[in-house]
Design brief:
Layout lengths: L2 E10 L2 E11 L4 E6 L5 H8 L7 E6 L2 E2 L8 E4 L11 H11 L4 H14 L15 H13 L5 E5 L7 H16 L3 E5 L3 H7 L2 E6 L2 E7 H8 L2 E7 L12 E7 L2 E6 L2 H11 L5 E7 L3 H9 L5
Parallel strand pairs: 3-8, 3-9, 6-7, 7-8
Antiparallel strand pairs: 1-2, 1-4, 4-5, 9-10, 11-13, 11-14, 12-13
The structure holds adenosine-5'-triphosphate (ATP).
Length: 299
């Protein structure tokens, strides 16, 4: 049950939105698909779902192209949210569920379970237009998963949600994954990706620039972050060879260093100067890696 994207290109006129993209996403992963605005994420999702034809290359799920015969196994939360505003939550979901081969009773029992999970049981008979944007998004999430898809594609699932609802949806994503759903999601929030994904890809101008296991990506990036909190002036650390970035913070400083060895130099430079409260070496954050690879500042 692998999702295989092989040498996929999408051209709009002369412009290549996706450029020779190859990715293999094994089943049961939560895979992060990242990139700056306009990098080609949504276009790739639309091609995976068969909503757009690739100019070149092919996409296979479980060794088959995705089309009407197997699309009931796939769930999609599109970037452009849209439910029928005048329909009740129940009527909306019954309609969508039946399109995917469920019967009315199945839909209603699943829907009640989800509404309860999301603490919105009283929304069953409300019209969509009566709900807040964030709550509409919960309903749209439910509409993407109610038929228990084996592949779930989520385009910016957490955008526009308050922190409590973000947690709720994140937990739902993890639970679905524990039950065996393969999940591919895009996000501009690097901390969500760090939390949920073991594997990811960063696309830049339609091409993958980073791809693999998060741990390995971090390790091979080379550069590290070093946090020093002390009761004395730390400015001089900025001059040590191998210190790429120096940022003063109220308690001390945060350094980006070329590699681990530079930490030894920094440690030596602190000796005999006074009291050091914190000296901590960390892997780079995904945000650091993203900014370097894509060259854009982010949110
Ligand atoms: P964002 O993070 O902003 O949602 P994205 O990575 O999802 O961005 P896409 O929506 O895939 O980016 O767009 C990729 C590029 O393709 C953009 O430059 C966009 O303008 C272009 N594009 C997308 N759809 C079309 C279309 N139908 N016709 C022409 N150009 C398009």
């Amino acid at each position: 049950m692998t999702l295989q994207i092989s040498k996929v290109t999408k051209q709009f006129g002369q412009f290549k939105a996706v450029d020779d993209l190859s990715l293999e996403i094994p089943s049961k992963q939560i895979f992060g698909f990242l990139g700056a605005n306009g990098a080609g994420k949504t276009t790739t999702f639309r091609m995976i779902l068969g909503l757009l034809d690739a100019t070149d290359g092919k996409i296979m799920w479980n060794n088959e192209p995705i089309n009407y015969s197997n699309s009931d196994k796939i769930g999609y939360l599109p970037e452009e949210r849209g439910l029928y505003p005048k329909l009740t939550v129940k009527d909306q979901l019954v309609y969508l569920g039946r399109l995917r081969g469920m019967n009315k009773n199945q839909v209603i029992s699943e829907l009640k379970m989800w509404l309860e999970k999301f603490n919105v049981s009283d929304y069953l008979d409300k019209k969509v237009e009566e709900l807040s944007k964030g709550n509409q998004q919960k309903i749209q999430f439910i509409s993407a998963v109610i038929h228990k898809p084996s592949l779930l594609i989520l385009d910016e699932p957490f955008s526009g949600l308050d922190p409590v609802n973000v947690e709720m949806l994140k937990n739902a994503v993890v639970e679905l994954n524990d039950q065996g759903t393969t999940i591919v999601f895009s996000s501009h929030r690097m901390e969500h990706v760090e939390e949920l994904c073991e594997h990811l890809c960063i696309v830049h101008k339609g091409k993958p620039v980073v791809h693999g296991a998060l741990k390995e990506i971090k390790r091979s990036f080379g550069k590290k972050n070093l946090f020093v909190h002390a009761d004395f002036e730390l400015d001089s650390l900025a001059k040590i060879a191998g210190v790429i970035n120096y940022r003063a913070v109220p308690e001390g400083c945060e350094l980006q260093i070329e590699n681990e060895e530079v930490a030894t130099e920094v440690f030596a430079a602190l000796q005999g100067k006074g009291f050091v409260r914190k000296f901590e070496l960390e892997e780079p954050s995904l945000n650091d890696i993203f900014i370097e690879k894509v060259g854009a500042s982010y949110e």
